[in-house]
Amino acid sequence: MATVLEIAARTLQIPTTMKAAAIDRFGPPDVLTVHTVPTPEPGPGEVLIAVYGAGVGVWDAEIRAGWWPKGKPTFPLVLGTDGAGLVVAKGTGVRRLAPGDRVWAYEFINPKGGFYAEFVAVNAEHAGLVPKRLDLLHAGAAAVTGLTALQGIDDHLEVESGETVLIYGASGAVGTLAVQFAKRRGARVIGAVRGRDAARLVKDLGAEATINVAKDEDYFEHLKTLAPHGLDAALVLAGGEATEECLALVNAGGRIAYPNGVEPAPRKRPGISVTAYDAEAGPQQWTNLARGVEDAKLDVPLAAVVPLARAAKAHERVERGHVLGRVVLRVRPGNG
Ligand SMILES: NC(=O)c1ccc[n+]([C@@H]2O[C@H](COP(=O)([O-])OP(=O)(O)OC[C@H]3O[C@@H](n4cnc5c(N)ncnc54)[C@H](OP(=O)(O)O)[C@@H]3O)[C@@H](O)[C@H]2O)c1
């Protein structure tokens, strides 16, 4: 018997063209406008996803402004590295996923276009089933950030029960999820944030305590009081002088991890393992994330829900900073 979602996916017409937020040149937020572009076709090993929610990352704004890994992109360039939706078609050789599946996906530079679009075609290996707990809007806001947070806590820091763990940059898109993943492993989580609103959110998500690393705050003394025996591990999501000060409290034999992109990167420290990593998206990683979401009873804080047509506003928002949770684009009506 076909499920409601399978029927929805089959009856959802796949048009030959679609709406997408794209750029024709690099520049400020207003270069990001709605375009009508051909709907991508899923090739062998790929799935076509009808997108509901697309995450907006600080790196998307950097790409829009002119950062590109190598060579030149083809314009119009549809932005967006991650999101969630319904599988509506698949190419040859795809067995793990089928039309009607609720999936989230991550593809950093996708030659077939990004997630700020009604449809996206991605390598099926880079997509996974969304756990029941999340609708497709919230899943779209937590795909790459979920992978980054979970892999930081579980794979790179290997956080254990009873450990004292600092999440530096705890109120942002990755941090809000990392706090919850660390807590689910039984760690004592201390969140480093800026501002009372950020502190409140991070405490609500399960941190035992927060330190305010804003200027004029005595955060170092506060952290020493909260962690009298030092820190066992730290996940770093923002770099700088204050970060380095706090990391001085990581004990010998302790661990520090940060995703590439954190600038300045935490410096090496004798006797402490310092690991840089990139989020990885594969079948096992999606299974791990789905389990992590259920175990942590994960909440995905949304700092703003912005319609696709106003994608430029979403970029202005992430560029202003102090985003509590993640900004997400609503691509089609409803939360999926
Ligand atoms: N390589 C990968 O696979 C990968 C994947 C995901 C993310 N990343 C990187 O991971 C980092 C975090 O990503 P995100 O999406 O979580 O970003 P985000 O939402 O902007 O969060 C960054 C957090 O750090 C805080 N922060 C920024 N500058 C600070 C400073 N000078 N002092 C103290 N706190 C500061 C922010 O607080 P305020 O709100 O007060 O500014 C915010 O809470 C980024 O560098 C991103 O590029 C890499």
CATH class of the largest domain: Alpha Beta
Radius of gyration: 20 Å
SSE arrangement, N to C: HEEEHEEEEEHHEHEHEHEHEEHEHE
- Uncertain regions: pLDDT < 50 for 5+ in a row? none
Strand content: 25-35%
The name of the CATH architecture of the largest domain is Alpha-Beta Complex
So what's the oligomer here? single chain
- The coarse overall form would be globular
Tell me the major beta sheet. 7 strands, mixed
Query: What share of the residues lie within helices?
Result: 25-40%
Give the CA-CA distance, first to last residue.
21 Å
Give me the number of helical elements.
10
What hetero molecules are in the model? NADP nicotinamide-adenine-dinucleotide phosphate
- The domain tally reads 2
CATH topology of the largest domain: Quinone Oxidoreductase, Chain A, domain 1
The computed structural class is alpha/beta
CATH superfamily of the largest domain, by name, is Medium-chain alcohol dehydrogenases, catalytic domain
Strand count: 16
Mean pLDDT: 96
